[in-house]
Amino acid sequence: MTALDTGRIEPRIVRVITALALAVSVLIMVALPAAYFVAARVAVTASLTARAESAAAIMTEFVTRNPDHWLFENARIRGRLAPFVDTADRESWRVVDLAGNATALLGTPARLPTLTVSVPIHDAGVVAGRVEVTRSMQEVVGWTSFLAVIGIALAGGSFILLRSVPLRLLAESMDRLARAEAMERERAAQLAQASKLAQLGELATGMAHELNQPLTAITLAAQNALKQVERGPVNQATLAARLDRIVQMARRASTVIDHMRIFGRMGGEANGPVSINAVVRGARDLLAFKLERHQVQVEDTLPPDLPMVLGQAIPLEQVVVNLIANACDAYGDVNEDGKPRLVTLAAAVAADRLALTVHDCAGGIPPAILPRIFDPFFTTKPVGKGTGLGLSISYGIVNDMGGTLSVQSEGGTTIFSVSLPLA
């Protein structure tokens, strides 16, 4: 059996279990010898009392017949009491008068400790003396001491057992719970990663468009530079400008690719200071083509000097991407009425938290389904248009960072609010 590790258990619980185990162990240690001693004493007392009462009844009859001479009938009294004496045990019998003088003695002297039972002798209804029986309790005390030693041993074993078993079971339960929570976190991380990759898949067309622009510019600049070289003398300034254009476009393409690579990377980093402005910029870059295709304009009203929040940049960017993308999907592919399609981003600081809001006027969310909006696999999109995991995963991401994700919807408008602690 492995050593018991109580480090993960709350000290108060350990103290309570230890105290209960100690109380039960002390009870076992005291109860075993005490129960035997009490039972043995009661049994001995009952036996002595029964025999003494029988002897006292015979002596009462004897005294009634010889009221004046019984005090001098030592031999006859001994003969009458002899049948009641237990010669196998160390016990002594005495018949005494009212003054306490012994009239007759029988048996062997009892060794200490002793137990004495006294029963009165009557003469015409008046107490004339008494029969006293004294018995040694050495054997009872010896067995009591033996059982006390056994009780101490049982108490020690009971304490170890009663303390270690509950603590071990509790520690094992906590280990199982920790493993279950770790597996749950791993599954949540895998779902978040799957959702993130699904978002990247949806944004692939836009990313292709973003990459196509710099690649086209690179191709044109390289072709013009090549034609200039073929025509003859090269104008150094013109060639340098075209080569610089190629470098700029290559860097732009590299930035897009790096952003996609970082966004698609598996999370798991610890919480740290994060710039909400940078998160919003990254989300807008990823959604540029989708916003253009849906004819949605993002109105960013975030102050440039917003304080840092405590969280993780890439998961937060995933949340913002999901909220803005949902607004685009709510507006639909075609702007039939020609009205402006706005998604407004705002931020406000209150106490030790920052709240980022994403506001759209795409028709709102029906009150009947609003309470289920963060449920896993719940979606109002057509089949093939969504997994129903985006908002649920976003809710979990924000919650893991110590924040909250909430929604309000009325009058055709919807406002999602992401509240995070300041760094």
UniProtKB/TrEMBL annotation:
<feature type="transmembrane region" description="Helical">
    <location>
        <begin position="140"/>
        <end position="162"/>
    </location>
</feature>
<dbReference type="InterPro" id="IPR004358">
    <property type="entry name" value="Sig_transdc_His_kin-like_C"/>
</dbReference>
<keyword id="KW-0597">Phosphoprotein</keyword>
<dbReference type="GO" id="GO:0000155">
    <property type="term" value="F:phosphorelay sensor kinase activity"/>
</dbReference>
<keyword id="KW-0067">ATP-binding</keyword>
<keyword id="KW-0418">Kinase</keyword>
<dbReference type="InterPro" id="IPR005467">
    <property type="entry name" value="His_kinase_dom"/>
</dbReference>
<keyword id="KW-0547">Nucleotide-binding</keyword>
<keyword id="KW-0902">Two-component regulatory system</keyword>
<keyword id="KW-1133">Transmembrane helix</keyword>
<dbReference type="Pfam" id="PF00512">
    <property type="entry name" value="HisKA"/>
</dbReference>
<dbReference type="GO" id="GO:0005524">
    <property type="term" value="F:ATP binding"/>
</dbReference>
<dbReference type="Pfam" id="PF02518">
    <property type="entry name" value="HATPase_c"/>
</dbReference>
<dbReference type="InterPro" id="IPR003594">
    <property type="entry name" value="HATPase_dom"/>
</dbReference>
<keyword id="KW-0472">Membrane</keyword>
<feature type="transmembrane region" description="Helical">
    <location>
        <begin position="12"/>
        <end position="39"/>
    </location>
</feature>
<dbReference type="InterPro" id="IPR036097">
    <property type="entry name" value="HisK_dim/P_sf"/>
</dbReference>
<protein>
    <recommendedName>
        <fullName>histidine kinase</fullName>
        <ecNumber>2.7.13.3</ecNumber>
    </recommendedName>
</protein>
<keyword id="KW-0812">Transmembrane</keyword>
<feature type="domain" description="Histidine kinase">
    <location>
        <begin position="206"/>
        <end position="423"/>
    </location>
</feature>
<keyword id="KW-0808">Transferase</keyword>
<dbReference type="InterPro" id="IPR036890">
    <property type="entry name" value="HATPase_C_sf"/>
</dbReference>
<dbReference type="InterPro" id="IPR003661">
    <property type="entry name" value="HisK_dim/P_dom"/>
</dbReference>
